[in-house]
Amino acid sequence: MNKTTRIGVDIGGTFTDFVLHDEARGLTWTGKRLTTPEAPSRAILEGIERLMSETGTTLGQIHSIVHGTTLITNTVLERTGSRVGLLTTDGFRDVLEMGREIRFDVDDLYARPAPVIVQRPLRLGIPGRIRADGSEHQPLDEEAVRIAIRELVERQNIEALAIGFLHSYVNPAHEFRAREIVSEMYPHLRVTLSAEVAPEIREYERITTACVNAYVQPRVHAYLDSLERDLGRIGFDGQLYIMLSSGGITTIDEAKAFPVRLLESGPAAGAMAAAYIAREAGESRVISFDMGGTTAKMCLVEDGQPHIKHEFEAGRLDKFKPGSGLPLKLTVVDMIEISVGGCSIASVDDIGLLKVGPRSAGSVPGPVSYGLGGTEPTVTDSDLLVGYLDPRAFLGGEMQLSVDRVEAAILTRLAQQLDMDTRPVAIGIQAVVTETMAAATRVHMAEKGKDPRAYSMIAFGGAGPVHAYALAKLLKVRRIIIPMGAGVISAFGFLITAPAVNDVRGYVAPLKKVDWARVSGLYAEMEARAVELLRKAGGDELEIELTRSADMRYLGQGFEVEVIVPNGELAPTRERAISEAFSTAYASQFGRVINDVPVEIVNWRLSARVPGSRINLAYSLIEMSAERGKRNIHFAEFGDVTATVYDRYALRPGAVIAGPAVFEERESSFSVGPDCTVTVDQNFNLVADIEASEPHDASTHTTEAAVLAC
């Protein structure tokens, strides 16, 4: 039997999302189930079995399952990882605590440094030294390695080990030999080498990355092994792939070896899907807005590609303060994450102000309206009261929402403390959430020198379309695009994303003194590895696309910009083209160039990928009247209005609808005000264009909400 079916699975904090696509049948189908945090694979198996039942698919037809998970992120945030030991160069055991030797907030006398991932008794120095040029200054003390690892394993009871020696990114020989010794003594101990997980300059970031990889590795191994067993138990014999933070997919073995690279796997899938939708819609500048049950994520997509960066801070103590987290050397989709989602809990703080998040009701006990035991009002509960959601149509009618429970909870938990009625409080929750997201987006874009008014917005996630119109109004964005199946777009992103490899080698040299033969050798090594990994992930070698780049800076600077390196033979004749590319990239980021200062290259990078799939999410279209009736909805600018409710699945390309209107589909709902015109494009996207006009007078309720949000 031909295996033509693929399934994308995204585990979120509240819901687990599914998208099934069968190329042979031209079939795309979606699903959504409450996440089972105590046993995540249970929701996966139940969702897959339901998809197969609804589509008539057999296990024998499933070619692959692509999965993304927040397990790594949660492990780091909650500090629930393994007990990790570190072997490092003698005299450098405190590099994790010394960090960059600066405070992330010099004005805060009480600012705490980010907690280290490996405690001092578990960090041991080993005599032996590699110079910055890669030559050996002092041989590795192999007996010291044996003594140290015996101490860590037998007396300190470590579960995983990180090895990070000075300058190993240039010459990893000492790290390789130390691993050989450890493996001879304790063959089952999981070992991470900094030279493999992050072969780049800067020992603090490189060693931190190795330690975080070791910290999450045993738990990720156990999770993926359990998932493979559970899938095998129901008869699945296809391939299981995992989403990377960089926006590609990889094999299960690579995911187990370098789990730190999965840190942002779920959000990355959403950004890749937004990029795909932008390309299909012909939009060159887009804000990707992904709002689920726990968080909202913003990413910029330009010319059909999401912004990418090569460093990431995990577990920040303060979301907007660089340096307050654990700096990691990773290739990730560049986005900002805000701790507000559909299940974020609203509360009154000590000085009587309404707050939303960061606490979340999750899937257990969930929002009050779910009737599953939740008692604290959430954003979803306020969505219900202001009219964004139909209590009888949630999840296509499978889950009935209770308005009475929500009103009682808001009254007792919030309204009585604020001396207000329940509806103004619900409106206040909306105002707080929208302004929180708008402020974070403005900061993210301002740091890049970007203006939101020059962008369109693609909104998705279960709560993204619900809040897209209000957010766009605050940002002065004039176009919103809601794709079909918006509530499960991250899972859709797994299916349109192709296998990819991002690799890097550290070699620092002034551009005028680069050893091009050495650079050619580095790229040859990276290309060979990339081709092998992509073959294992199901890629066709003839379709592999290779992109070279380099991290460059002016001599003496501490930070770099990424510059594309031309394909083909690398030789001194390429220096001028590379220098001009650097000047262009530097001017784009900083608005100027510096003359008469030498340029140097720090890292050499390779991105390798195969083309992704083209899938249309226009599914389950029905032949019937699109209008479902009328509903009262509150908009911040217009107050309470009567909106026409439409069944999205009954709308066809070319349809033009004037607001106010509500568009309902199984996994989400999209509302627009009177100043909006919505068109269904050829890809069945809802394209909402907002008129540029002077603000209308807000209602009394809106005024009260604004006061609450201040």
Give structural notes.
This protein folds into six domains: 5-75 and 222-262, Nucleotidyltransferase, domain 5; 79-219, no CATH class; 266-339 and 449-496, Nucleotidyltransferase, domain 5; 344-432 and 700-709, no CATH class; 500-609, no CATH class; 627-681, no CATH class. The protein contains 17 helices and 35 strands. The protein starts with a strand and ends with a helix. Strands 13, 14, 15, 20, 23, 24, 31, 34 and 35 form a nine-stranded mixed β-sheet that branches. It has a six-stranded mixed β-sheet with strand order 3-2-1-4-11-12, with helices on both faces. The model is unreliable at 695-710 (pLDDT under 50). The chain is 32% helix and 27% strand. By secondary structure, it is an alpha+beta fold. It comes from Cupriavidus oxalaticus. One of its GO terms (cellular component) is cytosol. Residues 206-496 form the Hydantoinase A/oxoprolinase domain. Keywords: Plasmid. One of its GO terms (biological process) is glutathione metabolic process.
